[in-house]
Write a structure and sequence with these properties.
Elements lengths: L1 E10 L10 E8 L7 H40 L3 E5 L5 E4 L1 H9 L4 E3 L2 E3 L3 H15 L4 E6 L1 H4 L1 E6 L16 E6 L4 H12 L4 H11 L4 H8 L3 H15 L4 H10 L9
Antiparallel strand pairs: 1-2, 3-4, 3-9, 5-6, 7-8, 8-9
């Protein structure tokens, strides 16, 4: 049974963006002495430290959440994104970049740095990194043969402020695209963003290739009733009303764009 209680406000609700409300409560049992002035003085002495610790923890949590959101945004892009420091060491790679690196070919990663096992290509990468560090952008094209295909590396320089949240400030942004595979990857990114099913994605891809409904049904070996059902789902998920509006919406979307198909 509790008899004595005492409380203190560490953070109130006046500035929730800085830290959430927090209250401390202390309890003594019925068989102990009530709180003394010394107890109260000790808690008052600790309150500012608790307050600072809570605000720091809250700020760290906000930074972590913001970082996760930025990474999720970069994962939605149908392009490999790398953030490098001035020595070429990779500080961040989105999922597309990780997948591309695992596939092999040029470029590759050695000891955590962007490189190529081909001497000429590696020298070209090093030169592009030096130019980016000096504030000059550049583009490299690496043909990896029929198995992997063409990869285009773009090196636009970025300021140190853009990488302030990383332990070592990022200086160089590397974007790697695969033009020969752009259509399928862009549609896949769009499908993830709007939660399209595999069947709906197949229908959308054929629509963007300017196939009519009859041809789509025959290609996919589905009935017209099934196709109409999938089209209705596409309209609902993309907030469009008909096929023409759906196609216009997709071609205007930054993940697809004109010329992809």
């Amino acid at each position: 049974m509790w008899r004595w209680s005492w409380g203190a406000v560490v953070c109130d609700a006046s500035q929730p963006e800085q830290s959430p409300p927090m209250y401390l409560s202390f309890y003594n049992t019925a068989f102990t002495e009530p709180f003394t002035l010394q107890d109260e003085a000790l808690v008052r002495h600790l309150l500012p430290h608790l307050h600072r610790a809570l605000r720091v923890r809250w700020k760290i949590a906000h930074e972590q959440q913001a970082g996760q959101l930025r990474e999720q945004a970069l994962d939605c892009i149908g392009m490999a994104i790398l953030l490098l420091n001035t020595t070429g060491r990779i500080l961040f790679a989105n999922r597309k970049a990780e997948l591309l690196i695992r596939q092999g070919g040029h470029p590759s990663v050695l000891h955590g740095r962007l490189c190529s096992l081909d001497i000429d290509k590696n020298n070209a990468i090093r030169q592009a990194l030096r130019q980016a560090q000096a504030g000059l952008g550049s583009t490299l094209r690496f043909d990896n043969g029929d198995t992997i295909g063409l990869r285009v590396l773009t090196f636009p320089p970025i300021s140190a402020k853009s990488g302030d949240n990383l332990s070592t400030p990022a200086r160089i942004l590397v974007m790697i695209s695969e033009p020969e595979k752009a259509a399928s990857s862009d549609i896949a990114a769009l499908a993830r963003l709007y939660r399209l099913t595999a069947a709906e994605t197949r229908v959308l891809k054929l629509l963007l290739q300017h196939q009519g409904t009859k041809a789509i049904a025959e290609t996919l070996h589905i009935s017209m009733a099934t196709l109409r059902s999938q089209l209705r789902a596409l309209f609902a998920k993309t907030n469009t009303k008909n096929q023409r509006e759906l196609i216009r919406f997709c071609l205007a979307h930054p993940m697809v764009g004109q010329g992809t198909f």
